[in-house]
Structures are given as structure tokens and as C-alpha cells.
Write a structure and sequence with these properties.
19% of the residues lie in helices and 30% in strands. The chain has one helix at residues 2-14, and strands at 41-49, 52-59, 66-69.
């Protein structure tokens, strides 16, 4: 289970360049999105960020990922 959890956290936080801080979730993106070869994007329709339902959109090569209200 630890390996599955580590992979999931990498896909949701590491590849999109998100860093959880005390700021609003929309400000968590810290760098450009870098995905593995052949991947175009990562999207999650609903996750909880800052106590609110959010949607994650991270497109390869974009300046930053987006966390928007779901």
C-alpha cells in the first residue's frame, strides 16, 4: 500500500508541481508541469483542497497546474 500511496502522491502533487501551503489552493502551483513522455495531462474531477471540493488540471508544458472549484 505504501508504494501505491507514494505513486498517487507523486501523480497528484509532484508531477503538477503543487506544494501545499497556508495559501489558497489556487496558489499552490510552484513550477511548470512536467509529465512523463507520452502523457498529455493529469486531471482529477474532484478532490478536497483547503476543505473545499476542487478540480485539478495539469497539462504538460504549461506554466502551472490549475486547482479550480469543482
Amino acid at each position: 500500500m505504501a508504494n501505491i500511496g507514494g505513486m498517487l502522491m507523486t501523480m497528484l502533487m509532484g508531477l503538477p508541481g503543487l506544494e501545499i501551503t497556508g495559501e489558497a489552493p489556487a496558489a499552490w502551483a510552484r513550477r511548470a508541469v512536467v509529465l512523463p513522455s507520452g502523457w498529455k495531462s493529469i486531471s482529477v474531477n474532484r478532490l478536497c483542497a483547503g476543505g473545499r471540493p476542487m478540480r485539478l488540471v495539469a497539462e504538460h508544458g504549461k506554466e502551472c497546474a490549475r486547482l479550480v472549484p469543482a
